[in-house]
Amino acid sequence: MTPIRIGTCSFADEALTKWWYPKGVPAKERLAYYAERFDTVEIDSTYYRLPERTTTQSWSERTPEGFVFHIKAFGLMTRHPVRLEQLPPDLRDAADTDARGRVERPSRELRAEVFRRFVEELGPLREAGKLGGVLFQLPPYIVAKPSSCEYLEWAREQLDGLPLLVEFRHRSWLEGDQTAQTLRFLEERGLTFVVVDAPRVDSNAVAPTVVARTSPVAYVRFHGRNADTWHKRGGSAAERFDYLYPDEELREWVGPLRELADGAEEAYAFFNNNNRSSAPPGSGRDFVAQAPTNARMLRGLLDVAGIPASGGSVADG
Predict the structure, then answer these.
(1) Which residue from 85, 147, 201, 238 has the highest number of Cβ atoms inside 10 Å of its Cβ?
(2) Which residues are 310's β-sheet partners?
(3) Strand 40-43 and strand 4-8: pairing?
(4) What phi-psi label fits residue 66: left (phi over 0), alpha (psi between -120 and 50 degrees) or beta?
């Protein structure tokens, strides 16, 4: 069975820098420290701004051979609203804005140039064999319809062969007969379906958990199950995904992860819960960072079940 690589969504979230990295670890050495404990990471900062080649070169240099990065697509690429200042300065004149300063109805030409630069700046990771895929998290208002599928096909063409990992957030993609149609659409085009664990709420903006694989890559994202903050607007991501999975909820995933990894060429599980929780009594600390704590817990559960996995150890909790 393919080993399941376990990691976190970011190696530099505030919860990690304050409650996981040992005091005294300089910022420039954090990735190397992370890479001694995990062999994969999801970079989510690229959702807010395009990556820069100097940065991706640095990431490559600070990680060992075999380390895998997955990169979240910039918001304009996934049809999220972005502010004008999030674009590179030389592209701003080509964009119209609404009353709130957000890019309005960007042309395909502008989007294509953003895609081109995104791919180009990832060059050092690609050349080093450390680039896994591009996470394409669609907004919750993108529903299942032909034009949405056409856009995904177009986006795939812009990525110059980079693997596209698709996360749906509107329920319409994964309900009733549409579920099979969605999975077939991805499989026929070689796109990877992103499995999610999220709050169990009745909302169109929360896609149900569907355990499936549409490519040789199995990919699972754990968002936490904080229903009270899921729809919160105006706060930080740490507030929205404030959740520490208890052991019994992670144990629910042992069977599904075994199923996903069986026959896969690569398998990943990432924790996107990025806040802090109170540390266990007697641990000698006040708080723990949720994502690496849950990564360690999941690794332990998979080890007990005899499922090969990497990512965190008891000492890292």
Answers:
(1) 238
(2) 5
(3) unpaired
(4) left
Give the pTM: 0.95
Please count the other Cβ atoms lying within 10 Å of the Cβ belonging to residue 93: 8
C-alpha distances in Å from residue 2, one per residue of 29, 70, 213, 268, 302: 30, 18, 14, 10, 13
- Please state whether beta strands 287-289 and 276-278 pair in parallel, antiparallel, or not at all (unpaired): antiparallel
Question: What parts of the chain have a pLDDT lower than 50?
Answer: 314-315, 317
Q: Can you tell me the distance from the alpha carbon of 217 to that of 95, in angstroms, rounded to the nearest whole number?
A: 36
CA distance 128 to 130: 5
Question: Is residue 192 a contact partner of residue 214, using CB atoms and an 8 Å limit?
Answer: yes
Q: Where do we find the tokens 């690229």?
A: 46
Residue 83 bridge partners (DSSP): 102
Q: Collect all residues with Cβ–Cβ distance below 8 Å to 204 and sequence separation of at least 6.
A: 140, 170, 171, 172
Residue 198, both tokens: 């999220």
pLDDT tens-digit map of 19-70: 999 999 999 999 999 999 999 999 999 999 999 999 999 999 999 999 999 9
Tokens read off for 67: 């380390």
Q: Determine the Cα–Cα distance for residues 89 and 120; give it in Å rounded to an integer.
A: 17
Instruction: Compute the distance between CA of residue 99 and CA of residue 84 in angstroms, rounded to an integer.
Output: 11
pLDDT in tens, 209-225: 999 999 999 999 999 99
**What is the rounded CA–CA span in Å between residue 109 and residue 105?**
11
Say how far apart CA 62 and CA 17 lie, in whole Å. 17
Which residue type, as a one-letter code, is found at position 141? Y
Q: Helix, strand, or coil here: 86? A: helix
